Amino acid sequence: CSRADDQYKNERSSYFNLPSLDVSVAFPQATPASIFPPCTSDYYHFDDLLTPEEQAIRMKVRECAERDVAPIVTKYWEKAEFPFEVVPKLAALCVAGGTIKGYGCPGMSITGSAVATAELSRVDASCSTFILVHSSLAMLTIGFCGSEAQKQQYLPSLAQLKTIACWGLTEPDYGSDASALRSTATKVAGGWILEGQKRWIGNSTFADVLVIFARNTATNQINGFIVKKDAPGLQATKIANKIGLRSVQNGDILLKKVFVPDEDRLPGVNSFKDTNKVLAVSRVMVAWQPIGISMGVYDMCHRYLKERKQFGVPLAAFQLNQQKLVQMLGNVQAMILIGWRLCKLYETGKMTPGHASLGKSYITLRARETVSLGRELLGGNGILADFLVAKAFCDLEPIYTYEGTYDINTLVTGREVTGVASFKPAASNQRSRL
């Protein structure tokens, strides 16, 4: 075989291994996403609904994402590697910790945290997922459910991104049915022994701090634990071959007799209901990811249609293209307004699980439609990550699924509005009516 391979190599053309042309040379008619388009998607002046502080957050995150993230993310996405070089830039934004007050955290409004999520997602959903997992899941769990000593020990460093966190709930056999998880926590002298397996855990392969949920073998309730990286018996390995959020390092976590001292058990997690306090906030944040993705896709398509010419005129001159662009724009406005209203409901203590689930399910559905239209508008270039839309198209798929699939979130809202839970199939009747 090696001889045949050598012969084949010798017979190939002299230009077989040349690097790809830079896209500006290969396709000079349109500007790639490494030079990000200006924001044209705020058609209904969403800024007017924001406080001056929230407007400032929005602009500083937008400027950072366009300046520091856009030029480099495509190469990392293609290689499925995380862009660690942007972490200091993201740290300087001071958005990690979101709504947590004190302990070096920014104490933003939930609306401010939401627009920060959207602005990162507008340029790169992987970077926004990195922050969301670290901040709106792991840090928020410590903020809501940790002891005072734990907050003081962990939150300041996490807020500065000097240390990174992940959040381990999902297991190979338990995704939508997360409350049935089987990882166990057994009380021993001075601490706990964790056994089990987690899957799809973002940031896990390089996290310094792992927030892990396991079933207390004595009470059969879910408890939370802070596990430090490289603890004996802990292993995290990267999940390969993803088609979306490729820069996010999702991992499989194995827990084999991992000892966690008593001081690292989260005292505020005593049942699965306690995790829902965190999930309520994170579900709102996740709803703002597809909003940001759709904004970026619209902005890219808006510029592309005016630059790219066919039949002697810009693509923007064709009625079919204008109709698709306007449909995308309408979706974005509706998604923004629903997301904003969710934030207001949360801030006033009126948001229910059904509210959050309807927002997440509706917004991801409309975002799917929006990025699909964007892919159509870019034609052949719609499958190139260089022009954003292909990457956004793929990145939206895991977001459509995580933090509750479209179907599960629909059922959460359905249960709330009807009073009937329909998560499990009806018991089969052994006797036929016939």
Task: Give the terminus-to-terminus CA distance.
Answer: 64 Å
Q: Can you tell me the residue ranges where pLDDT is under 50 for at least 5 consecutive residues?
A: none
Q: What's the tally of helices?
A: 13
Give the oligomeric state. single chain
H/E series: HHHHHEEHHHEEEEEEEEHEEHHHH
Beta fraction: 5-15%
Structural shape: globular
Short description:
This protein has 434 residues and is α+β, with helices and mostly antiparallel strands. The protein is 48% helix and 15% strand.
Question: How would you describe the overall organization of this protein?
Answer:
The protein contains 13 helices and twelve strands. By secondary structure, it is α+β, with helices and mostly antiparallel strands. The strands form three sheets. Strands 3, 4, 5, 6, 7, 8, 9 and 10 form an eight-stranded mixed sheet that branches. A two-stranded antiparallel ribbon has the order 1-2. A two-stranded antiparallel ribbon has the order 11-12. Helix 9 packs antiparallel against helix 10. The chain is globular and about 75 Å long.
Key traits:
single chain; 434 residues; alpha+beta; eight-stranded mixed sheet
SSE layout and pairing:
Blueprint: H1 2-11, H2 23-26, H3 52-69, H4 73-79, H5 87-92, E1 101-102, E2 105-106, H6 110-123, H7 125-145, H8 148-159, E3 165-168, E4 184-188, E5 191-202, E6 209-216, E7 222-228, E8 234-238, E9 250-261, E10 265-266, H9 272-307, E11 309-310, E12 313-314, H10 319-347, H11 353-377, H12 389-401, H13 406-418
Parallel strand pairs: 3-6, 4-6
Antiparallel strand pairs: 1-2, 4-5, 5-9, 6-7, 7-10, 8-9, 11-12
